[in-house]
Amino acid sequence: xxxxxxxxxxxxxxxxxxxxxxxxxxxxxxxxxxxxxxxxxxxxxxxxxxxxxxxxxxxxxxxxxxxxxxxxxxxxxxxxxxxxxxxxxxxxxxxxxxxxxxxxxxxxxxxxxxxxxxxxxxxxxxxxxxxxxxxxxxxxxxxxxxxxxxxxxxxxxxxxxxxxxxxxxxxxxxxxxxxxxxxxxxxxxxxxxxxxxxxxxxxxxxxxxxxxxxxxxxxxxxxxxxxxxxxxxxxxxxxxxxxxxxxxxxxxxxxxxxxxxxxxxxxxxxxxxxxxxxxxxxxxxxxxxxxxxxxxxxxxxxxxxxxxxxxxxxxxxxxxxxxxxxxxxxxxxxxxxxxxxxxxxxxxxxxxxxxxxxxxxxxxxxxxxxxxxxxxxxxxxxxxxxxxxxxxxxxxxxxxxxxxxxxxxxxxxxxxxxxxxxxxxxxxxxxxxxxxxxxxxxxxxxxxxxxxxxxx
Length: 456
Hints:
The chain is an alpha/beta fold. The protein has 3 domains: 5-139, Response regulator (Rossmann fold); 147-317, 3-Layer(aba) Sandwich (Rossmann fold); 321-452, Helicase, Ruva Protein, domain 3 (Orthogonal Bundle). It is built from 19 helices and 18 strands. The protein has helices spanning 13-23, 35-45, 66-76, 91-100, 112-143, 153-165, 182-191, 210-218, 235-238, 254-266, 292-297, 303-309, 326-338, 351-359, 365-379, 399-405, 408-426, 431-438, 442-452; strands spanning 5-9, 28-32, 49-53, 81-86, 104-107, 144-145, 148-149, 172-175, 200-204, 219-220, 232-233, 243-247, 268-269, 278-279, 283-288, 312-315, 348-349, 384-385. β4 (81-86), α4 (91-100) and β5 (104-107) form a beta-alpha-beta unit. 30% of the residues are buried.
């Protein structure tokens, strides 16, 4: 493997000789003793690392020595890591250089071993940033499809199937575990079809009580039941010309399944309490994480409806079966939430975090990954995210164990308590900072502290 290039800029020949002798075996060392020579050599070699003397002499009285060179280096190639070398009398200038984009500074007299540690850390961060840029470029150019991400063969097959299915009018059934992105598939089908300028309507069949779902879907006439004070247009009718996504279709009652089946066969509906047939032009995309074959055998799902829905069946793989997508997704979510975390310069994940993400089974799939990374961005005060900040601490139980032992309310309480305590520790009790880290207002934070009995 090629050695990294290191440009050393200092007007002291003794310092140049010392550093050349000490570092030439580990780096391709390039020496410069003046402002212009430094810029010429930087332009010619594009070194990964630059060791730059703050007090570099210049014939130009208006020049600020090393600071001016730093400005020009950052303007020409912001990726190189610049380490400022300074004496005690110019420490303040070195700190100013950090604000201008220098990676770090070091005080003379130079301790070679300590300087090597700084160079090694700078090179690690540089390589990490290069990897993140590569992933981002690949994501943009190759592996991002209608807000879905995947380089694995299974996801590329899914993308290809969506492209084929979208222009058609066939009903589509999307299956897969919870958190795999079924709604994104439905959106992709809609926005790649001729219906893209019409409504895209989402109806969660498992989240709406049965007695309300019928009215939600089909609408009702005035006076059709006790609280029907006015006529209501249902979501199917309101989505005319567009696409309706029926999520968790496996949870729909048998009586409503009959009505959906009739619509798919005849393309007409009747409002609750009405007797007029209304023709509709909508496309249905349904989704489920249930085993519909099993529900059919149990008498909970109509077989004829299943065949009507699954003219085309798109099965989404769980994240554990698409390992090569893990870091693409992790990098995407990291960049997404970094933008929301103003003032945090997060470079990526440390080796332990990468190893953990690579071997973890991701029972909650992409939704779990997004939540873990969002949490880590909120909590970290470092440039590299660790396993603990991702919720993989050695003292923490895995998600399956937690969900077996706790109710949803208890799990939420424990999770929120842990987040609040961590934020209070990181902010050293500063309520305003802790609230900002958690993405809530100060009054909300006080309410949560009181609710969970947290000792500040």
